[in-house]
């Protein structure tokens, strides 16, 4: 009960082909590869965000007084839409 020989492996492959069908197997493999690429790119983006979100030195106070540049929303990896500016409220009073 320890080793799988060539006969057992061939039998397992035949059962898989019979269960899923020969037409669906390439589509399933393609879908699995695409999911793996998306997962890898998301993990890389999260790692880059962590490195950028922890600056070594805080910005000087003079830079805070200047008007900030408009912020943009970055498109997710694999998203076909482009980045767009975000309109922010300039009202600083709390209600």
Write a concise keyword list for the protein shown above:
single chain, 95 residues, mainly alpha, two-stranded antiparallel sheet, 3 helices, 2 strands, 4% strand
What does this protein structure show overall?
With 95 residues, the protein is mainly alpha-helical. Helix content is 53%, strand content 4%. It contains three helices and two strands. It has helices at 6-20, 24-53, 61-65; strands spanning 72-73, 84-85. Strands 1-2 form a two-stranded antiparallel ribbon. The longest helix has 30 residues, at 24-53. 0% of the residues are buried.
Question: How do the strands line up in the largest sheet?
Answer: 1-2
Rg over alpha carbons = 26 Å
Looking at the chains present, what oligomeric state does this protein adopt? single chain
Overall spatial form: elongated
Query: Helix coverage percent of residues?
Result: 40-55%
The portion of residues forming beta strands comes to under 5%
> What's the total number of strands?
2
DSSP helix count?
3
Average predicted local confidence, pLDDT: 75
> Strand pairing plus helix content: what structural class?
mainly alpha
Unreliable stretches covering 5 or more consecutive residues = none
Topology pattern, helix = H, strand = E:
HHHEE
The separation of the N and C termini measures 71 Å
Q: Major sheet: size, sense and barrel closure?
A: 2 strands, antiparallel
């Amino acid at each position: 009960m320890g080793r799988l020989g060539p006969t057992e492996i061939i039998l397992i492959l035949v059962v898989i082909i019979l269960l899923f069908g020969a037409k669906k197997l390439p589509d399933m493999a393609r879908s699995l590869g695409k999911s793996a690429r998306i997962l890898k790119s998301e993990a890389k983006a999260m790692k880059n965000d962590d490195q950028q979100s922890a600056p070594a030195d805080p910005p000087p106070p003079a830079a805070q007084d200047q008007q900030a540049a408009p912020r943009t929303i970055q498109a997710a990896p694999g998203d076909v839409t482009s980045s767009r500016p975000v309109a922010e409220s300039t009202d600083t009073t709390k209600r």
